[in-house]
Amino acid sequence: MGNREDLMAGAKRCLYEKGYGRTTARDIATASGVSLAAIGYHFGSKDTLLNAAMIEAIGEMGEALGAVVYGANQVSDDPEVRFAAVWNGLRDVFVEHRGLWAAQFEALAQAGHNPELARALEEVQKEGRLGLAAVFQGVTEVPDNDEELARGTFYQILLAGYVAQWLAAPELAPDGFEFLRGLRLVSGSVLGADAGAPGADATR
Questions:
Q1: Contact in structure between 82 and 76 (CB atoms under 8 Å)
Q2: Is 36 exposed, middle or buried (0-12, 13-18, 19+ CB in 10 A)?
Q3: Euclidean distance between CA atoms 108 and 174, whole angstroms
Q4: Digit-coded pLDDT (tens) for 98-156
Q5: 90: enclosing H helix or E strand
Q6: Distance between CA 42 and CA 96 in Å, rounded?
Q7: Among 118, 123, 153, 180, which is least packed by CB within 10 angstroms?
Q8: How many CB atoms are closer than 10 A to CB 122?
Q9: Which architecture characterizes domain 50-191 according to CATH?
Q10: Which of helix, strand or coil describes residue 5?
């Protein structure tokens, strides 16, 4: 790898080990085995490098999410069983990538005071939502349309809430069957007998 790739790898390692807010330029240089000056040469600033590393690391973690969902979707022909299996499987991803999940929440908290970071996060929102829509359906990609964006947004909100609960108190985080029970209750109370029926979307 060249210096640029080494810096990206080092920055990602720092995100996992030190988080977003506590990572310094010297931390990245040390983790990368590259000089401090190389950060400015290749990326302009530590923040630009760290933001790029965050986006790339999230994409790599998305591949791990996809593998878990794919495996869970093979356990049964019953969509409810698959739904529960997916959320149970995601706990392993939380354990493996805990540092990055925590770093993302740190970054979100700072985005309001960091325009460059806010732009970086905003630019990947649509792509991220479509990616989640694809992952949770077990396909490689989905059309860029309102339906898939709505589906991806729903999963994004569920996932973010689950991560927050797991980071705060993992012993209280729900399992897949609790997710399924909640989905049934909410769908029944909001949509009633029309839940999942064709044409049930009253917002259009």
A1: yes
A2: middle
A3: 24
A4: 999 999 999 999 888 888 888 888 888 999 999 999 988 888 899 999 999 999 999 99
A5: helix 79-96
A6: 30
A7: 123
A8: 10
A9: Orthogonal Bundle (1.10)
A10: helix
